[in-house]
């Protein structure tokens, strides 16, 4: 299968490398120091499931350099989605399928603004991985799962073909019969994990082990469930308790990519996570005080370390739009 991976970070770098190792024709689009390092030494993935190395010729600097892929995996930060979608239009119009494994519940709406609606599959990824240094991606733990599917709930030949390739690559993968619900179920957990680990500045073990922060984690997730149900998504009313039990099974040291970005002084996906829950709640008349508080607490860091950005007076909403 000819696969393009837009973004060679934790998600794109890891899953793309697994597919390449299984014999698929995978091309990565990267930029900056990460691109330069991959061009010089290739992409290295360090994982408890086995280390991988992708050769330097598998990376290009621009989407315009891609040559008619069968499927495009989008794995960039959420603020880049609009720009990426515009650049992907010629490929999608030429028949390429596009599946985003980004965070959030608004990503595919953005993609469909620029791409043929039928070209977009829904997708979610489950993994803890990040760029340790330019050219090197580190996978934490053994969780590595992709779930994807068509929005019309059919099991299409292209979804089946991608499933076959993912399974052949040793990836835990599944086709979802209701991908919108699946995306929201991931969103419930993701907002809880990202919001609380970032606000508390500690991994999940600390968050779930303290009565106060554990209650915060549950309430943050319960608010996401309430917003999703108000939007018509068939989430179980008690799904937050289900996800809290799931959090109890995670490695104590596990954290979120937003917490990692916060500690590194990087820009945050805040406006698409707790900020998005708060904004959607306001639109739907659903109370979201915990998510609003987290969005407000982290607002000064939305564009990165305030000291490094000059302490600019920027609201979370303004930051999310940039």
From TrEMBL:
One of its GO terms (biological process) is pantothenate biosynthetic process. It catalyses: (R)-pantoate + NADP(+) = 2-dehydropantoate + NADPH + H(+). Pathway: Cofactor biosynthesis; (R)-pantothenate biosynthesis; (R)-pantoate from 3-methyl-2-oxobutanoate: step 2/2. Residues 178-300 form the Ketopantoate reductase C-terminal domain. InterPro entries: 6-PGluconate_DH-like_C_sf, 6PGD_dom2, ApbA, KPA_reductase, KPR-Related, KPR_N, NAD(P)-bd_dom_sf. Pfam families: ApbA, ApbA_C. The keyword Membrane does not apply. Residues 3-152 form the Ketopantoate reductase N-terminal domain. The keyword Ribonucleoprotein does not apply. GO terms for molecular function: 2-dehydropantoate 2-reductase activity. Its EC number is 1.1.1.169. It is an enzyme of class 1 (oxidoreductase). One of its GO terms (cellular component) is cytoplasm. NCBIfam families: apbA_panE. Catalyzes the NADPH-dependent reduction of ketopantoate into pantoic acid. PANTHER family: 2-DEHYDROPANTOATE 2-REDUCTASE, PROBABLE 2-DEHYDROPANTOATE 2-REDUCTASE. Belongs to the ketopantoate reductase family. This is 2-dehydropantoate 2-reductase. It comes from Streptomyces violaceusniger (strain Tu 4113). The lineage of its organism: Bacteria, Bacillati, Actinomycetota, Actinomycetes, Kitasatosporales.
């Amino acid at each position: 299968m000819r696969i393009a991976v837009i973004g060679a970070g934790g998600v794109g770098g890891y899953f793309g490398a697994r597919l390449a190792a299984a014999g698929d024709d995978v091309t990565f689009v990267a930029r900056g120091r990460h691109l330069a390092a991959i061009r010089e030494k290739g992409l290295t993935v360090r994982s408890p499931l086995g280390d991988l190395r992708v050769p330097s010729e598998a990376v290009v600097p621009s989407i315009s350099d891609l040559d008619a892929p069968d499927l495009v995996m989008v794995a960039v930060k959420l603020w880049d989605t609009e720009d990426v979608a515009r650049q992907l239009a010629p490929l999608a119009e030429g028949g390429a399928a596009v599946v985003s494994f980004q965070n959030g519940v608004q990503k595919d709406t953005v993609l469909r603004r620029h791409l043929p609606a039928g070209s977009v599959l829904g997708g979610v990824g489950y993994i803890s991985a990040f760029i340790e240094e330019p050219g090197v991606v580190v996978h934490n733990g053994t969780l590595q799962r992709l779930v994807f599917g068509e929005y019309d709930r059919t099991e299409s030949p292209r979804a089946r073909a991608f499933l076959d390739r993912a399974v052949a690559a040793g990836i835990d993968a599944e086709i979802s019969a209701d991908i919108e619900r699946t995306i929201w179920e991931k969103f419930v957990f993701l907002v809880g994990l990202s919001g609380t680990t970032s606000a508390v500045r500690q991994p999940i073990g600390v968050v779930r082990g303290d009565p106060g922060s554990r209650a915060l984690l549950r309430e943050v997730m319960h608010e996401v469930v309430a917003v999703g149900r108000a939007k018509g998504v068939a989430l179980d009313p008690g799904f937050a308790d289900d996800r809290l039990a799931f959090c109890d099974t995670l490695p104590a040291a596990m954290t979120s990519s937003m917490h990692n970005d916060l500690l590194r002084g990087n820009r945050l996906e805040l406006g698409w996570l707790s900020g998005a829950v708060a904004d959607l709640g306001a639109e739907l008349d659903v109370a979201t005080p915990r998510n609003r508080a987290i969005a407000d607490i982290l607002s000064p860091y939305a564009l990165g370390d305030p000291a490094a950005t000059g302490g600019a007076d920027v609201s979370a909403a303004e930051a999310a739009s940039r």
